[in-house]
Amino acid sequence: MEDTDPVNCIIVKTNHLEFSDDENTQDDQTPNMNHFPIIAKILCEKPLNNNAIKSALLKAWGLTPKTRINVIEQNTVVFLLENESDRRRICRQSPWSFRGNLIVSQPWHPHEALDEVDLARYQIWIQAMGLPVMYINKDSAEKIENSIGSFI
Q: Any idea where the DUF4283 domain is (predicted)?
């Protein structure tokens, strides 16, 4: 008796699939070794205009207009950079913002599934204003930082 449930049929058909690094399964939207992808997610509850995100980040990051950009989901895009130095510079200069919203960005390596990229953790600078002089020290900075995250 054949299973007619479409989900079970898909599971059975794909259960034994294997991929190797030497398979050429590239398409026009898949990063290859000539691209250096960055995933960027804007932390904002409302949907933002993807074209505005692309335009603003191309300009802020100093990238050429021919940089390929793919929308992954609302407020999340992948930039396929042409060189590793741009990717390192963008990551080193983070955090970035778009219209007052934090941008979490991470390099993406093609051997990772998109959902394996950790966009839940990010580094930010904190500036505590108005502290009494006696609390302007490393111990106070660590206490403040550890109350909202972990001190680096």
A: 38-115
Any residues with CB less than 8 A from the CB of 36 and at least 6 apart, and which? 80, 81, 82, 83, 84, 86, 87, 107
The 10s digit of each residue's pLDDT in 79-129 is 999 889 999 999 888 889 999 999 988 898 878 887 788 887 777 777 788
Compute the distance between CA of residue 97 and CA of residue 43 in angstroms, rounded to an integer. 9
Domains and CATH numbers, the chain: 26-121 (3.30.70.330), 124-152 (no CATH)
Q: What DSSP letter does each residue of 83-130 carry, written as one string?
A: -HHHHHHHHHT--EEETTEEEEEEE--TTS-GGGS--S---------S
- For residue 6, what are its two tokens? 């479409």
